[in-house]
């Protein structure tokens, strides 16, 4: 059940307690979120029209959602006219099946992949593994995690629990098994480690016949797809293979090319705190002499229409996955991403998860309570999602449902946990002060260098994947043996 | 029912609160944000701002003139020690005048990815540049080539003319053709995935150098 919350995931209070026990993780988390908060505040402060951009972003999303059928049909027509092929998927399972069949039709057994929230949400890598197809994640952090046979620990910097010596260790030990070996004299300087990753993945990029991506935006009136990234692995996946398959949630649509002028300003500044991320790629269908010869767009519902049906909850679909709300959230800063039990952590995860998946599981029912309603997330959200409003609304829904179904109410548990999470007043205070600084107040101080990479929109973002039944390494060994 | 019909009808059911007579344009989209234009496109201030912002993002920037551009191109490539650089079709002849022909690699006939991987660098023009964000935009037009050319080699030298420089994202998008594959480049690729240490250049060119004419 790839669409469900992680199987066996404890509910939020329990998972939060586990995460809180890990002080090192907490310190790293605080450092990461603090740095990015400051950078965001600085680059947002550079724009005098930030509030107007936010309002335009919100309004464009509202227009899109209220007429989503119209825009999707237009999008489909334009993508098709430009040489692309559009597929529709009711849920994650169907999307995985479509992608698997498309890859099978090419005869390939391996694909390169640029991280995307949508493919993570539907458990695509696991589905491909079951079909005997190796999906290589190409973000540096993902590589570290995949080679190290463990799970991402943090959405900003998934490999934050690994220090440089460990990463060197992992590279030396595991790279040779999956492809180009790490140089024997590999040191632990991040530069050398990045170089080793470059060499290791390059071979895969150069021979890849199929690339898989998500998209940050789909433009209805031109049929254009947009991917925002930092490392260049996205460009490799979008440009070099012969076949490109993009899996995208239906809510990623925007009406016009002009609308991108709003989102391409809002997203990088909110996400990595950069004026612009290193690379943004746009493409419309296929091009005669440039890039993949076949382009497949898989449009995913996966609970989005259920979310759309709730006029208050609907605004969660505005989300452009910048993760600014995570970085200002006092609860998130203290418990990290795993506690939210899905690929969507933090404040947005608390309102999106239960709506996409429904509120039948304990973890989903407790998520609307994983907040202090301090409002910092609303203030920073580039598309003005009123997260506290939706949280309160969902709480009411959960309580009503609990009464109807005579289930034990989760909110008492959750509130107890929240009190405990926030019991260190100094930490909460710091987080909240920093959060309001994320507005326009402290904006114009001296500029600081940008923080590249890790956040670079949520096409890049990651959190705990659905726990694999077998580790990547075991699976790889097994399928390779089967093949040879 | 096909998945397409199913999803579309779910959407229509979900939007029961939206009246039948409401058209997309009936949902107001206030565009009170700045359309750009300051500094004016092509102005000295715009070029200066672009130079600053590019440098901010770790690109090497040089201001040159129409007379010195050929020398600057040749020198930049010599300094890099590149034995062969890809020069896409349509790159102005006069700008490559200082390059030894045996150092120039053409993409016609099309280079294989492995040939491209052995090239030391690439020199291109651009379609537009955005001063406020320090961004170059490539659209595969003359002198730019297909996207892989500016991706696989480790060094990218880009020559930009002043009149191509606009202040803002809205102005740039209005100038670009969405039907062409576009790449927006803001500095060399980068990552902070290892202990939050910034490392420039992961998969894209690790060095980005820009010559601004005018
Ligand atoms: S909800 Fe959070 S992640 Fe989504 S756009 Fe708003 S701030 Fe960004």
TrEMBL record, chain A:
Coiled coil: none annotated. One of its GO terms (molecular function) is 4 iron, 4 sulfur cluster binding. The keyword Protein transport does not apply. One of its GO terms (biological process) is lactate metabolic process. Residues 74-286 form the LUD domain. The keyword rRNA-binding does not apply. Pfam families: Fer4_8, LUD_dom, LutB_C. Residues 398-479 form the Lactate utilization protein B C-terminal domain. InterPro entries: 4Fe4S_Fe-S-bd, FTHF_cligase-like_sf, Helical_ferredxn, LUD_dom, LutB/LldF, LutB_C, NagB/RpiA_transferase-like. Residues 316-385 form the 4Fe-4S ferredoxin-type domain. Gene3D superfamilies: Alpha-helical ferredoxin, NagB/RpiA/CoA transferase-like. Keywords: 4Fe-4S, Electron transport, Iron, Iron-sulfur, Metal-binding, Repeat, Transport. This is Iron-sulfur cluster-binding protein. It comes from Streptomyces luteolifulvus. The lineage of its organism: Bacteria, Bacillati, Actinomycetota, Actinomycetes, Kitasatosporales.
Automatic annotation (TrEMBL), chain B:
Gene3D superfamilies: NagB/RpiA/CoA transferase-like. Residues 19-43 are annotated as: Disordered. Residues 115-213 form the LUD domain. Pfam families: LUD_dom. This is Lactate utilization protein C. The lineage of its organism: Bacteria, Bacillati, Actinomycetota, Actinomycetes, Kitasatosporales.
């Amino acid at each position: 059940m790839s669409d469900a919350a992680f199987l066996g995931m404890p509910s939020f209070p329990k998972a939060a307690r586990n995460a809180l026990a890990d002080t090192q993780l907490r310190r790293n988390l605080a450092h990461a979120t603090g740095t990015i908060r400051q950078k965001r505040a600085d680059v947002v402060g550079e724009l005098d029209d930030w509030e107007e951009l936010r309002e335009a972003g919100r309004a464009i999303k509202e227009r899109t959602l209220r007429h989503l059928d119209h825009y999707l049909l237009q999008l489909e027509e334009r993508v098709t006219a430009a040489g692309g092929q559009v597929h529709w998927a009711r849920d994650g399972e169907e999307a995985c099946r479509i992608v698997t069949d498309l890859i099978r039709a090419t005869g390939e057994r391996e694909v390169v992949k640029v991280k995307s929230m949508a493919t993570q949400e539907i458990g695509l890598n696991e589905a491909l593994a079951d079909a005997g197809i190796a999906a290589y994640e190409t973000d540096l952090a993902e590589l570290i995690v995949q080679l190290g046979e463990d799970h991402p620990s943090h959405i900003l910097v998934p490999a934050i629990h690994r220090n440089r010596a460990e990463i060197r260790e992992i590279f030396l030990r595991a790279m040779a098994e999956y492809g180009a070996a790490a140089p024997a004299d590999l040191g632990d300087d991040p530069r050398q480690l990045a170089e080793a990753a470059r060499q290791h993945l390059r071979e895969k990029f150069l021979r890849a016949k199929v690339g898989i991506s998500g998209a940050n935006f789909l433009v209805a009136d031109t049929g254009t797809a947009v991917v925002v990234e930092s490392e260049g692995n996205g460009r490799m996946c979008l440009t070099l293979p012969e076949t490109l398959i993009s899996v995208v949630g239906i809510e990623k649509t925007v009406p016009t090319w002009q609308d991108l002028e709003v989102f391409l300003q809002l997203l990088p500044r909110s996400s990595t705190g950069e004026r612009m991320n290193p690379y943004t790629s746009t493409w419309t269908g296929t091009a005669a002499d440039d890039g993949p010869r076949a382009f497949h767009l898989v449009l995913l519902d996966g609970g989005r229409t259920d979310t759309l049906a709730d006029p208050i909850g609907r605004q969660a679909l505005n989300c452009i996955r910048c993760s600014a709300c995570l970085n200002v959230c006092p609860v998130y800063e203290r418990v990290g991403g795993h506690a939210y039990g899905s690929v969507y952590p933090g404040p947005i995860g608390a309102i999106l998860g239960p709506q996409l998946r429904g509120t039948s599981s304990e973890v989903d029912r407790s998520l609307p309570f994983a907040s202090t309603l301090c409002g910092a997330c609303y203030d920073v959200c580039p598309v003005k999602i009123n997260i506290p409003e939706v949280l309160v609304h969902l709480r009411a829904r959960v309580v009503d449902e609990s009464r109807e179904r005579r289930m034990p109410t989760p909110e008492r548990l959750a509130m107890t946990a929240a009190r405990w999470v926030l019991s260190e007043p100094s930490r909460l205070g710091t987080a909240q002060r920093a959060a309001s600084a994320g507005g326009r107040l402290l904006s114009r101080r001296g500029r600081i260098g940008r923080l590249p990479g890790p956040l670079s929109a949520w096409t890049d973002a990651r959190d705990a994947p659905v726990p694999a039944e077998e580790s990547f390494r075991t699976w790889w060994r097994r399928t390779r043996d089967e093949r040879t | 029912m096909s998945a397409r019909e199913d999803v579309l009808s779910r959407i229509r059911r979900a939007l029961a609160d939206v009246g039948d007579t409401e058209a997309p344009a009936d949902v107001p989209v206030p565009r009170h944000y700045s359309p750009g234009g300051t500094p004016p496109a092509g102005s000295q201030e715009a070029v200066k701002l672009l130079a600053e912002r590019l440098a901010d993002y770790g690109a090497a920037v040089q201001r040159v003139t129409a007379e010195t551009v050929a020398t600057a191109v040749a020198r930049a490539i010599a300094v890099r020690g590149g034995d062969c650089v890809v020069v896409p079709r349509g790159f102005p002849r006069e700008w490559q005048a200082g390059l030894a022909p045996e150092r120039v690699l053409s993409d016609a006939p099309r280079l294989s990815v492995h040939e491209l991987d052995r090239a030391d660098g690439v020199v291109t023009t651009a379609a537009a540049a955005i001063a406020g964000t320090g961004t170059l935009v490539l659209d595969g037009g003359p002198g730019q080539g297909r996207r892989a050319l500016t991706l696989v080699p480790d060094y990218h030298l880009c020559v930009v003319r002043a009149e191509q420089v606009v202040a803002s994202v809205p102005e740039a998008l209005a100038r670009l053709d969405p039907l062409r594959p576009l790449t927006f480049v803001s500095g060399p690729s980068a990552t902070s995935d290892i202990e939050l240490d910034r490392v420039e250049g992961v998969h894209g060119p690790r060095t980005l150098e820009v010559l601004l004419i005018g």
